[in-house]
Amino acid sequence: MPSAVEVSAYVALVAVGLLAANLTLGLLMAAGFNPARHWPHRSLKLFRLHNWTGYIALTAALIHPAILLFSTSPPFRLIDLIVPVWSPVQPVSNVLGAISLYLVIVVVATSYFRRALGRHLWRTIHYATYAAAVIFFVHGLIADPTVTGRAIDYIDGEKVYVEICAAVFMIVTAWRIRHRRTRRRAELLRA
Questions:
Q1: Tens-place pLDDT, residues 38-65
Q2: CA–CA separation, 2 vs 17, rounded Å?
Q3: The model's pTM
């Protein structure tokens, strides 16, 4: 039977994958990607898929630390999860994970009030997603999933998975920035 720490690590991997997928979908939508015109040449509701991956990712990200409350070695208290500065192990990594989680909560919560906030303010807040992504990828890379204090093995399967998710995010982000610049140049030439 897996320990609470192991189950928490598995849930974290699910959250990382879902968050990476959600970020990719958001970047594709922001670039005006249309799956009916481009690959896979089918009508897909990207906005709905983006929302659902966000909700499920947030749920997994909330469950990830909550499972640690059932850990006996090391024991975690609720305060260790909410303010992980006093975490029994890996306080730096846990603080980064908490910051990322709090940013994701803000982004998802403000998305419910998108119309009331107005597009400009909502979009500005939504840019916090980039910071959250960088922080949760760093958290995933420096955290010891066994919480035993062992050295980081960057070619371990779990770390490679996080590295691949981070690389996909960076590639799609670079594509999005390039796409935006190309579109702006084309608009300036038309004007």
A1: 888 888 889 999 999 999 999 999 999 9
A2: 21
A3: 0.90
